[in-house]
Amino acid sequence: MLSIEKVEAGYGESLILKGMNLSVMPGQVVCLMGRNGVGKTTLMRTIMGIVKTRGGKIMWNEQDISGLSSDRRAQLGIGYVPQGRDVFGQMTVEENLLLGLEAAKSKSKDIPEDVLDLFPILKDFLKRKGGDLSGGQQQQLAIARALVSRPKLLLLDEPMEGIQPSVVDLIESVIEGIKHKREMGVLLVEQSLEFVGRIADHYYVMEKGACVAEGGADELSDELIREHLTV
């Protein structure tokens, strides 16, 4: 599905990704870990086309999409929930969700009921402005907005960050449901080792813009954690 091959990317004169390799197979949940500042968010933004590649390839179903726009990548089936959510505060919940439908192949103008069923609070708040929601509610909206287009790959950048435990449990349940169906791949940035151990099929650890370790979630060792994840 997705294959990152020796990708280089950055901002201005600064090179952040330095030969990054990573892959996500259909139906697989992959967790991306690493200390702050190693390039995790930059990688997610590069996959989505927000940051341009300077070298290497981003392959999607054996097609090189490195030069495609973010809109085109979304239309091909990549959904993205950025760190910070990027909910449109002056738009209603319903309008935010309808915006997510722009990437849908079906071009339907109806918000899928099954997506709303995942996040019941959104049903009650459809006419409420996104900026009036709590942080946890905005995260639910951001994930739902990505899901309405029926992506084949969902990118989640620290979806549990800064939200209350009840919403963390809800989001974990949603990801578990996606994993159970094995129809959509998930790549998420996550620092909780307990969560990674529970839900990931595979993990990658980044350091200085490159992958330094990978394996099955059950292969995470105390030695690896001390070397690459603890501050």
* Overall spatial form: globular
- Proportion of residues in β-strands: 25-35%
Mean pLDDT over all positions:
91
Binned, the helix content reads 25-40%
Count the DSSP helices.
9
- Secondary-structure-derived class: alpha/beta
Low-confidence runs of at least 5 consecutive residues: none
Query: What is the number of E strands?
Result: 10
What does this structure look like?
The protein is of the alpha/beta class and about 230 residues long. Helices cover about 35% and strands about 25% of the residues. The protein contains 9 helices and 10 strands. The protein has helices at about 40-50, 70-75, 95-100, 115-120, 120-125, 135-145, 165-180, 195-200, 220-230; strands spanning about 1-10, 15-25, 30-35, 55-60, 65, 80, 155, 185-190, 200-205, 210-215. The strands form 2 sheets. Strands 6-7-8-3-9-10 form a 6-stranded mixed sheet, sandwiched between helices. Strands 2-1-4-5 form a 4-stranded antiparallel sheet, covered by helices on one side. α3 (about 95-100) runs parallel beside α6 (about 135-145). The longest helix has 17 residues, at about 165-180.
